[in-house]
Write a structure and sequence with these properties.
Organism: Medicago truncatula (Barrel medic)
Protein name: 3-oxo-5-alpha-steroid 4-dehydrogenase family protein
Low-confidence stretches: none
Bound molecules: NADP nicotinamide-adenine-dinucleotide phosphate
Pfam family, one: Steroid_dh
Number of strands: 2
Mean pLDDT: 93
Oligomer: single chain
Strand order of the largest sheet: 1-2
Distance between the termini: 25 Å
Structural class: mainly alpha
Keywords: Membrane, Transmembrane, Transmembrane helix
Shape: globular
Membrane topology: Multi-pass membrane protein
Order of helices and strands: HHHEHHEHHHH
Number of domains: 1
């Protein structure tokens, strides 16, 4: 596909050094984090909080620990506030911007809601893990919306993806929520152990919630049609491919009866 064909789907990249730099940094840093997951250098939360090695153990004693619930609230709240504030900061940027602002705000509101009322956590999160993720979510959501603002006086891309984007976003959030619900049903009140998830797409892949998150993020891109939105979705895809690969390896090492036909994130393939 030539660059000019690609431009049929995109607003012209704005002459903004900030947006150009963020497009590169977001995609490269997320992809790098995904490669690190495959290499065994995990973000320190959830199952991978307890992955032990000699050096890691010593270092972990010096880490400031948050409960997973507090850590996750810290991760998502600033991004939610950025989305909600954007309605006041950019109130008149047109329908596409309004839909994007609504989608970003709803996504992070849903995450805060799930942290408070759906997920049942067993562990902790290191503050040094939580801070960069918090900054990255906050900056990404603010940049998504600001990049859209910069398109408000530009001609629309010749191929309009707004409505397919809304559909993708809705499929993404619904599928993601449903699989979070199935995960939460694995534990009774106060229970902390891990079990093999069942139901929904868990019978085909071990991280269907990541798959639907990726679908939802391409929903943002299709709604937005900015270069930044695609850089964010592509970077997220690489990160979640890496994390899902590491998650499948973790299940294989922990459960002798883990079904080998259950892939990481893409049914029958990966
Ligand atoms: N956009 C991004 O870059 C990005 C990055 C990461 C995550 N996310 C999204 O955030 C959401 C949550 O991700 P996550 O990595 O926190 O998911 P996760 O590790 O699968 O955990 C989700 C919840 O399910 C519980 N859980 C997981 N496996 C379980 C099992 N086998 N038995 C019982 N409970 C289990 C976890 O408990 P414990 O905490 O006790 O493990 C946690 O409460 C996902 O939808 C993901 O797509 C997005």
């Amino acid at each position: 596909m030539t660059f000019s064909t690609f431009l049929n789907f995109l607003f012209p990249p704005p002459p903004s050094l900030f947006i150009t730099t963020m497009s590169v940094i977001t995609c490269v840093s997320l992809a790098n984090a995904g490669i690190n997951e495959v290499r065994g250098k995990h973000l320190n939360y959830s199952k991978f909080w307890n992955v032990e090695n000699n050096n890691g153990d010593k270092k972990k004693k010096k880490m400031i620990k948050l409960s997973s619930k507090s850590g996750m609230l810290l991760l998502y709240t600033p991004a939610f506030v950025a989305g909600a504030a954007s309605f006041l900061v950019f109130p008149d940027d047109g329908f596409r911007s309004l839909v994007l602002q609504g989608a970003v705000t709803f996504h992070f509101f849903k995450r805060v809601f799930e942290v408070l009322f759906v997920h049942k956590y067993s562990g902790s999160m290191a503050l040094e893990t939580a801070i960069p993720i918090t900054l990255s979510y906050f900056l990404s959501s603010a940049t998504l919306i600001y990049a859209q603002h910069l398109t408000s006086n530009l001609p629309e891309p010749s191929i309009d993806l707004l409505y397919p984007g809304i559909a993708l976003f809705l499929v993404g959030v619904t599928g993601n929520f449903y699989h979070h619900y199935l995960l939460s049903k694995l534990r009774g009140k106060g229970e902390k152990e891990y079990k093999i998830p069942k139901g929904g797409l868990f019978d085909f892949v071990i991280c269907p919630h990541y798959l639907f998150e990726i679908i939802g993020f391409y929903g943002f891109s299709f709604i937005s049609q900015t270069l930044y939105s695609f850089s964010f979705a592509i970077g997220t895809t690489f990160y979640l491919l890496g994390r899902s690969y590491a998650t499948r390896e973790w299940y294989l090492s922990k459960f002798d009866d883990f079904p080998k036909n259950v892939k990481a994130i893409i049914p029958f393939w990966f």
